[in-house]
Amino acid sequence: MRAPPKLDMIPRRLALALPLLPMAAQAQAPAWPSRPIRLIVPFAPGGTTDVVGRLAAEKLGPRLGQPMLVENRPGAGATLGAQLVARAEPDGHTLLVSSSTSHGVSPAIYPNIGYDPMADFAHIALLSRTPPALLVTRNHPARNIQEYLELGRRERELTLAVAAIGTSSHLAGVRLGQALGVEVRSVVYRGVGPALTDVIAGIVPGIIDSLPSAVGHMRGGSLRALALLSETRSPLFPDLPTMREAGLDVVSAAWFGISAPAATPAPILARLTRETQAMLAEPETRAKLEDLGGAPPPWTPAEYTAFISRELATLGALARAAGIKPQ
After folding, report:
1. Are 49 and 41 in contact (CB under 8 A)?
2. Which domain holds residue 62?
3. Nearest Cα to 240, choosing from 264, 223, 265, 259?
4. Is the entire prediction scored with pTM above 0.85?
């Protein structure tokens, strides 16, 4: 049996190269991101989720060195888009704008959604948390929140446009009707854009919508805001009362963040977290989020994950108690 060659019998050029092989293999590992990143927004264009997602994509893409492309995948209370990301290749090139709908209300009301809101995702960062406002068409007979509530009591009904079943705004409307003791008729649309269009046109008298998608209409006068569903007044609209000031304890908040498939490699998650936090700390980004009604606290991924876990329990219980059913 021939003995193995001694080191001095191996060609000198190959012997010198042997210690470099692990480094060469490491150098050949694919860089991330190696192509444009898909940011899935599980709602139609024009709504708050879309507004926040497009701002994040605009600011985060340059930091990562690749374009971040927003892809709208609406349907079934945001569960279709969330399912797409949960099942995507976990290589960091497909991300989700997670929200109080996809990871709060909808898991409680939609059967067989096709994903586990906790186990199937790596939750990275909170992007925005903002209260909704009760808005009515310009020609609505109620000039303030008290008149609106009195009108609802007389007619024994409220009619509100809804972007989709299972949104936090939809839940807030149902809770408003319960607190007032009247029926809420929800006119369901495929996204907040067409819902707002019909409210502006006077086809539907009102809507509860988050500030980022509503603020332009509020400032432009195409819609009138009657109240915020928040604990305190907003510095953006200091003259706008809260629903609590009108005597109804109905408080709500929509939130939006970034999540990835659960098996995404740790180095990718670490860089994505680092760049997202740096992006959120930029004065320009923070100012834009504050102007939309909600700049986020600087939460770590663990803090955002714990928050989602709490919201799943809280919002799920509220949705079940309100009797919300998918259509």
Report:
1. yes
2. 37-129+254-322
3. 223
4. no
